[in-house]
Structure of Asparaginase:
Amino acid sequence: MTNPVLVEVLRGGHVESRHSGALAIVDADGGLVCALGDIARPIFPRSAVKALQALPLVESGAAERWRLSDAELALACASHSGEPEHVATAAGVLSRLGLDVNALECGTHWPTREPVLRGMIARGEQATPLHNNCSGKHSGFVCVACQMALASGREPAEFARGYIGADHPVMREVTAAMSGMTGVDLEQAPRATDGCSIPTYGIPLRGLALGFARLGSGQGLAPVRAAAARRLRQAAAEQPFMVAGSQRFDTLVMQALGERLFCKIGAEGVYCAALPELGLGLALKIDDGGVRAAEAAMAAAAEALLQLDEAQARLLAGYSDLLMKNWNGIEVGGVRASAELRAALSASR
């Protein structure tokens, strides 16, 4: 199946580039509300599923044992920019466990927020795993490991070692949660290694959308899991800065919409979202991995599905129908959701 064009890039009023992709919107019963392109092909959702991966953190009792705050829980769902607040929050979680940065197995990369990066370089500072955009998620994994260790009389730091492996008890719980939410048997799914070194599984967009419909509604979930999903969504709504960072789409949109929308980007042009008031979940993939295109498609979906005030509509239109200017401030083109995408979304309302 050839996927349709979801997003167009304009130059001087002419289409310069086209981004094809696929999109699925489903309800919590698995009913298909909107489909474009091949939604049955497994794709690697990457960081878009961090909220699903964080469910064991709350379900296990680890979040309660160590009194994790909204900011710390939101960071567990985050692909953050490595700003000082993100780094300090992840470090605080580890300190409460009696551990330090060496417990993290996500690897090291520099902050993605350029002013922060430049400041660190000017001061002669070095990046650590705490600056990794996945350090909050991994701090959550370490919390789960410590909870398991204490429950079984094991030494926490020793038990946590190797938690990124597919066969480690922590990762088995994470994988089981994702399988249960999406309805996909991940034992039979394609498997690869994510950028932060944990396993990533090939899941069809329809399954991902189902997982997020359940995340947003709690429908079809056991009470403990439904409560965990609600706790994570509320934390992200209260602390949206922690989910991404300054001038990032996920943070800005959740600041504007609160609990009405939980959205999360993943590498290579993936987006997943829960729309609790509608009981819907959404998943999309841009074929060429374009982040700008994924944001445009996600913004168009939110515009079509949610009732918005003027400020909210203006914010989303800044992504779904983006005006581009050059370095001299001259208008040169734009980025826009395609007519086919907007028509399909309109028909799904």
